[in-house]
Specification:
222 residues, eight-stranded mixed β-sheet, 2 helices, elongated
């Protein structure tokens, strides 16, 4: 014998289907971390619209495209890189270690695991030599032009690393320094290796990994 379903029960069932059949389409459950082997920042997220998926250092300013959106499949982002791997942009976290991602439907903010908060700026350098002399002090004809250059490396716990800054073109190093992320790290050396190269050797005796930077001022005669 068939049971007859009342119209009221049919309406209740239809309402439940309406409420539960449509999943959330907004970006959600995002996360990010610094890969301890490559130093690249990698992002995870759920509910992502691949065509409009962007990132930024501040909320509301998510305008930067990810390196390759092939990392988004079935609305899930997995290990998306901020930029071309092993470049400065791909490895540099925001100053407050909070990354913001968004698409056309919503946004999400997350702490970057492995990040040490701090302003990512070049330090002040000593004044360059007076115009009319090379770094070695010999008189020359022309004007001395100086530029600041840097390189960075993700240094794991207990690791010692050499970072080299090579001056472009005919540039010669006139000064340089290392910039560890905190005062618990050691700077074993910061010195010129040859004319165009400055080397910083840093040691991380702590249990916290982070980015060390080497900065140099390169000068050339024009």
């Amino acid at each position: 014998m068939h049971k007859i379903t009342s119209p009221r029960n049919l309406l209740v069932a239809a309402a439940l289907l309406t409420c539960t059949a449509t999943p959330s389409e907004a970006v959600e459950r995002c996360g990010a971390f610094i890969n301890p082997f490559s130093g690249n920042i990698e992002v995870y997220a759920k509910g992502v619209d691949a065509e409009t998926f962007r990132w930024g250092h501040r909320e509301g300013e998510e305008v930067n495209e990810f390196h390759k959106l092939s990392c988004v499949k079935y609305r899930s982002a997995r290990r998306c890189k901020l930029a071309k791997p092993h470049t400065l942009e791909a490895r540099t976290p925001p100053a407050d270690c909070t990354l913001h991602v968004a698409d056309s439907t919503g946004r999400c903010s997350t702490w970057v695991r492995g990040c040490i908060p701090g302003v990512r700026e070049l330090p002040d350098f000593p004044e360059p030599p007076e115009p009319g002399s090379e770094p070695g002090g010999d008189p020359v004809v022309g004007s001395l032009v100086c530029d600041d250059h840097s390189t960075q490396l993700f240094v794991s716990s207990g690791m010692t690393a050499d970072l080299d800054v090579v001056c472009p073109g005919p540039g010669q190093v006139v000064s340089g320094r290392a910039a560890p992320p905190n005062d618990r790290w050691n700077v074993d050396a910061s010195e010129p290796v040859d004319g165009p190269t400055w080397r910083c050797t840093v040691n991380n005796p702590t249990l916290v990994a982070g980015f060390a930077r080497c900065h140099a001022r390169c000068c050339r005669v024009e």
